[in-house]
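Collaborator request log, item 7. Partner lab (contact: R.S.) asked for a structural prediction of phenylalanine--tRNA ligase to inform their binding assays.
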Amino acid sequence: RRVLLLGEGNFSFAAALCGAQGTHVVATCYESEEEAAGRGGAARSIRRLRDSGAEVVFSVDCTKLKEHFLPGKREFDRIYFNFPHCGRKAGVVKNRQLLAGFFHSCAEVLAQEGEIHVALCNGQGGTPADQPRREWHNSWQIVAVAAGAGFILSDVHPFEAETIDGYKCTGYRSQDKSFCVEGALNHIFTRSTAPLCFTPVSCQTQLGSQKVSFQVPQVLVDKINRGFLEVNSSHPVRTIKEKLSAGLSQAFPLQNISSCLPLLHQAHPGGVCPSSIFWVTLSPAPSTENTSQGLADSVLCSHFGQDTDEKVQEGCPVPKQFYLRPSLLPDAQAIIKKRAFSPGTLQVLSGPVFRKCRITPHSMPVFHEMLVVLAVSRGTENSCIQMLVDNIKTTVNSLHQGVSGVKPSISLQEATSFGTELNDFAAFEWQLGEIQHFLCVGTDPDPSGSCVGVIRTAPDELKSHELVVVSASLNLDLLAVLLCGISDWRMLWTSDRCFLRQFPEGELRLFKSFSLYPPSYVHDVSFWVPDGEEFDEVAFHTLARRVSGEMVVSIQLRDNFQQPGTGRRSLCYRVTFQSCDRALGCREAAEMQLHLREEIQQHLGVTLR
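Returned to partner:
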């Protein structure tokens, strides 16, 4: 591998590396050879480097690396820059500018899977790894600066100068003097995945005898048809689903009926707020000859059941009141209504469901639901519920202890006495129908528990004299987040391969973030709301998701002002931009904020202030 070292003072660090097997060292410094050789021990290190076959290059500007190497020798597997500094008494702003130029230059010469190692003195980096940590404005803000060039911080560890044979730091204020490296940190950066390009996606499906198409809501474009639950998937969501199914099959005969479930539902779902639904408009699908690339049936194929309320004949208008399914419960109720089940057999339905919601770390506009349905003899439903819950608790306990070695707290709480504030998953389930129990899983740092499932019995109109139908709905994504220690649900949907590499062959493990201390950028937006209208916060949050490509991590109401005399109402929100898996620079975040201002004015009818 080719290793590039920049800003060498006396070349003692490069000399310590030059003997590594399979490594070709290119050691450089900013000074001329005459200036560099005058530093204590430099001449000896340079001779050692050249004798070992290493390259030594002088007068190299770290912000213009491409200019110093021939086209065939520009790619490096690792780049080291130890204790960069503009020289003399340069302040933090100039040193940030130096790092910015350095990282942009590295982008032109670093191999795709390469690493950049930057050692900084204690406190300079501005990350939580620095102890003590400087105030942000007084640091070099290295993670944010690197993000502007497309790099993420993948690791940080102590720079142990005493373990490097012959190493001596030098260059204090551009002099041949050493400086304190106690508490210094080595920051390791890697390339970020490229920003996603959200081009419109249309999907085709069969409705009755007619093939129709619909445009996927833009906020869901990168989440449709990801195949997390498919047989060849190693995604933790599938692993948890398979483990739960295996555990349940020990207590009940089990039948999986997920393959034929429709992606779209028709007409308005009773009790559900219309603003929580992703509505779609259907249109006759174009003929095969006119179908654009990417709109083929393979993108998505979902079939409506034979009992679709509104049949569509060839040439007839297509009904428009369709929406992406927010739950699998209507599909389960359709099975119950047709009596298409065997009493005592557990029916398992699973698949992605879609719900508009506010932006929080555990609120998901799409997640994978696992719904189990069981018909039991009247009078035995309570014991069957307990058996079902005990089985789920045993499996979740086993999974969590296998991952972290710690037993989680799992509780079944009566819906009437549920003391914890409902999360978005539980609150939406309330809208779908009466709930008997909430299933909560508590892990550090929230031992009180987060609702991951609900238990209910079928409504009266679906009951019979002999049978009662019990169902349990589980949020597989939320379970994966809690069991694997994933702090942000968005990580489940990342396109970065570093995520799935941590779960080989479906093995559940504690997740280790590959993007450490991602920078956040705070912007405020204030506007007048239309007179007499209630502001739709869910629509605002959904718009922010779409505009930013899920880069908004928080939206908080800062001020609600009513103008005396006119009665006009003004709202001020604080919007925080932060990515969990890729580089997000301050300029890109500022552009997102400007776009968000334009979009809320256009789509929500507000007047910007």
